[in-house]
Amino acid sequence: MSASAPAVEQQIEVNGASLFVEEHGQGDPIMLVHAGLLSSGSWAGLVPLLAESFRVITFDNRGHGRSTNPSGALSFEQLADDTAALIEVLELERPFVGGWSDGGEVALQFGLRHPGRARALVAGGTSLELGSEATKSQMRAIFHVDDDGVVDLDAVASEFEQTLLPMLRHSHPRGEQHWRTIVQQSLTMWLSYSGLTREQVERITEPVLVVVGDRDEYVPVEEALRLYRWLPQAELAILPGTSHLRPIMDPATLARSLTDFLRRH
User: Fold this and answer.
1) What is d(CA 11, CA 235) in angstroms, rounded to the nearest whole number?
2) Taking Cα atoms as reference points, which of 61, 105, 52 lies closest to residue 83?
3) Rounded distance, CA 249 to CA 185, Å?
4) Where does 8-129+194-263 sit in CATH, by number?
5) 14 with 36: CB under 8 angstroms?
6) Strands 208-213 and 234-239
7) Over the stretch 172-202, which tens digit does the pLDDT of each residue have?
8) pLDDT digits (tens, 9 = 90+) for 45-75
9) What are the distances in angstroms from CA 124 to CA 78, 117, 135?
10) How large is the average pLDDT for residues 235-255?
């Protein structure tokens, strides 16, 4: 299967959910975990660049895109366990595992919860501050969350009508209620997440590429540097002129950093 060949698509049952999975290219396998609120379709620009050299596997996290989530709940730990279960079903021998934003946090949780299962990890656009009260306060303000943890979804739709909303609708094809459900479930996950401690980070022994944009609105370069310092085997890539979503919309710079890292590991 070449990089230009049609994608191989399938639904795979793991941990009570049915996950939509796509494969492109051939070579050493890399599993990509998409950013929060989106779907595996957000990797459309990056996949062809990596599939020239690697077997690239993308999937919709439970509840997102074309995947199901009968439990109605999300957690970074569960998403990491789903990734591990997919690796088992696909019979992959120590693939690379990486992601952006929420996907980067899932990659770290994967390294913590499933040691030795990945050849190397990529933690892109994530931060040790993800579980902090400062970050949670920011999330409450951005998504108009009340004291009971309920998102004002109409306010979100209005405020992000020209930016995030079209991406939400494109990512979640089952109608307006689909993206609204994902936003509420994701906020519940973010606001209940305790983050990773230094002791936990230091237990992640796989090589890790920490990637951050120097113009990321949510992840300061200093926080990516702190994560890089805590990890036993890490490299740091700072993408110039790059906001939080630019690596998804314009992935050429990210692809170069990933390809260099993956080829060396």
Assistant:
1) 34
2) 61
3) 24
4) 3.40.50.1820
5) no
6) parallel
7) 999 999 999 999 999 999 999 999 999 999 9
8) 999 999 999 999 999 999 999 999 999 999 9
9) 19, 19, 17
10) 96
